[in-house]
Amino acid sequence: MTSTDSLDALTPEADQIELCQERIGYRFRDVGLLRSALTHASGASHRLESNERLEFLGDAVLGFTICDWLFQEHQEYLEGELTQIKSAVVSRRVCARVSRQLQLEECLILGKGMRQSAGVPRSLLSDVYEAIIAAIYLDSGLSAAREFILRTIGEELDAAVEGHSIGNYKSALQQLSQREHGSAPTYRLLSETGPDHSKLFQIAAEIKNRKFTPAWGKTKKDAEQRAAGNAMAELRGEEPPYSD
After folding, report:
1. Residues of the chain with pLDDT under 50
2. What is the pTM of this model?
3. Does residue 130 have an active-site annotation?
4. DSSP per position, 19-64
5. Which of 59, 127, 139, 224 does the annotation list as catalytic?
């Protein structure tokens, strides 16, 4: 007997559970865990049978996974910057958006009247995503939960990192330069062009005697950020993103 055979195949719940497994790309050994993860308090005979406890655990697993990934993959960031990125990803808004992308709304087991013309409330979508994380964790362990998290929230995570980096290239370069070279980077104005009301500035970052690819910007501050971005890329052996 397969795991799904343990449920009455004729019940709407069984259909929702099967649909959910297809949409999340994971099959449960214990489908009872998934049924609990999908069950809102309004659709449970007792609140202990709802997804509230799983949501509590899933929130912790999600937070740990994102923190661990950031710590391992972005060693140039300090604690405060890591916290900012993590907070941008581990939010109810992002979790709800991922739920919508996975089309989990149809999989929720709700009480009568919970489905509204405007759709399921965002808080329910956020909760079910975290509850599913916990269910996978309990079913197969941290590795499986991590794979699911990074696969489904990866684009949001990359966007948060990129958004943070764009505004913090100078900060990241400062930290890297101090740590690895013992000195702060400098920025050299190479050229400026255009009328006074619409100037463009070309600036290059330098660390000790090494000069990096310059970048243009509409302000000196913007050009310095882009120049720092070029330097960060070249230090990683990558093509400078602002070389034109």
Report:
1. 1-10, 43, 117
2. 0.65
3. yes
4. HHHHHHT---SSHHHHHHHHB-GGGSSSGGGSSHHHHHHHHHHHHH
5. 59
